[in-house]
Write a structure and sequence with these properties.
The chain is mostly helical. The chain starts with a strand and ends with a helix. The chain is 80% helix and 3% strand. The protein has 17 helices and two strands. Helix 6 runs antiparallel to helix 7, helix 11 packs across helix 12 (237-266) and helix 12 packs antiparallel against helix 15. It has helices at residues 23-44, 47-54, 60-63, 65-88, 90-101, 104-110, 114-143, 148-177, 187-201, 207-214, 225-235, 237-266, 271-299, 302-321, 325-353, 359-388, 390-411; strands at 3-7, 10-15. The protein has one domain: MFS general substrate transporter like domains (Growth Hormone, Chain: A).
């Protein structure tokens, strides 16, 4: 089925759904999202060490505040990004996200105090909430209902592979130069400039694809945002189980972002080794999503989500209980595997349930709860770490992750 559509960015053309039919734009959006992920990877290894070694902050809670500021800003930006996308167009929101991210690397490089790092992460969270949200939504728009898991898997592969590779690169640069600033952040100057240029010059809006898919569904009455928020968050049993799993998944990722570098450094691991461990986890997560995304299209969503949460919990328990680089590396591989099982599957599951006319808003609500997990995880782990030690914080978050898998197993229907 084709329709003629015209947008400010495109001449009249036949609009079709499918990965093969839209592979050029899909590939471009994957590249753009790799650059979005690279911006997060800049901070995974070095920034917590800047807090402890450059600014001499002893409290894990204070060091974790930069992750909390990122998570809160990204969560609330996610909440409005779907509405902005519907009202203003996907491309415009994508461009705005990149524009907001331009100052971030300079603020980190020149930061005279920890407050500048926290402020930079507020901007980074807003930028990510707009730019990453749009790359996901636009890919789902392009491929249609048959390949949502594949689309999300490829998108998250591009983003999180870049997170991991950049985390490894910043650790290596810091080790090679013997300094935590400014050299590890030089790639972060190129990422937003290139991402903004590609988004402005080559990306095309996907609103026509949404209208085409919506025409194949029974008409839906216009929904208020508050109704979409309540249904996605609490009113629908399936969506609730998905949202809580997303929150807990990013809760343990926020903990790992803030606490793992401090934990490994306290046990004598150097910055290059920390960068390796911090890089392996998101690289495995990113690469395996190429498999787990389309696998969820064939096997269903529920099993991958529940088992993925339990595999993550096992990895966290191993890091807390065992000592040595080899054990930590194995546990990081398990964390990456478990997250790869969960991450694209959750987004595809929300897309399955939501009507196309409100899908962007339902995804934004899910992403609000998911990314609020960054803040909850960082602050909770910091508080537990200050009171009982970093190993206890990691183990506690592992317990929450296991319970979240149980919630999915008991509440989410099998499709």
């Amino acid at each position: 089925m084709t329709v003629s559509a015209q947008s400010p960015d495109d001449a009249p053309s036949a609009v079709r759904l499918g990965l093969r039919e839209n592979w050029r734009q899909f590939s471009l959006l994957a590249l753009i999202n790799a650059l979005v992920g690279g911006m997060v990877g800049l901070e995974r290894t070095v920034v917590p060490l800047i807090g402890s070694e450059t600014f001499h902050i002893a409290s894990a809670s204070i060091v974790a505040s930069f992750v909390a500021s990122f998570g809160i800003a990204k969560a609330f930006t996610n909440l409005v990004s779907g509405q902005l996308a519907d009202n203003w167009g996907r491309k415009h929101v994508l461009v705005l996200g990149w524009a907001i991210g331009l100052p971030v690397p300079f603020m980190i490089i020149w930061a005279p105090s920890w407050n500048w790092i926290v402020a930079a992460n507020l901007l980074l969270g807003i930028s990510q909430g707009l730019a990453w949200s749009m790359t996901v939504i636009m890919k789902i728009d392009l491929v249609g209902p048959k390949s949502r898991g594949l689309a999300v898997g490829l998108n998250e592969f591009a983003g999180y592979a870049a997170v991991g590779l950049t985390a490894f690169a910043t650790g290596w640069i810091a080790s090679a130069t013997g300094t935590l600033r400014p050299a590890p952040f030089y790639p972060g100057i190129a990422y937003p400039v290139l991402g903004l240029a590609l988004s402005v010059l080559l990306a095309r809006d996907t609103s026509a694809h949404v209208r085409l898919e919506a025409a194949r569904h029974a008409p839906a009455a216009p929904a208020r945002f508050i109704d979409v928020f309540l249904r996605t968050s609490f009113g629908d049993r399936e969506m609730f189980s998905i949202c809580q799993a997303g929150l807990v998944n990013n809760l343990n990722d926020g903990m790992s972002w803030a606490i793992f570098p401090l934990f490994f450094a306290a046990r004598g691991l150097g910055v290059e080794g920390i960068g390796t461990l911090k890089g392996v986890y998101p690289v495995v997560w990113g690469v395996l999503q190429i498999v787990t995304g389309p696998l969820s299209d064939r096997l269903g969503r529920k099993g991958l989500i529940a088992w993925g949460m339990w595999v993550q919990a096992l990895g966290l328990f191993m890091i807390a209980a065992l000592d040595g680089f080899g054990w930590w590396l194995l546990a990081s591989l398990l964390l990456g595997l478990g997250t790869a099982m969960v991450y694209p599957t959750l987004i595809a599951a929300i897309s399955d349930v939501a009507h196309p006319s409100s899908r962007a808003r339902s995804l934004s609500v899910y992403r609000f709860w998911r990314d609020m997990g960054y803040a909850v995880g960082a602050l909770l782990a910091g508080a537990i770490g200050d009171a009982f030690g970093l190993a206890a914080a990691i183990a506690a978050i592992g317990g929450l992750t296991f319970v979240s898998g149980l919630v999915v197993a008991l509440m989410m229907p099998r499709r």
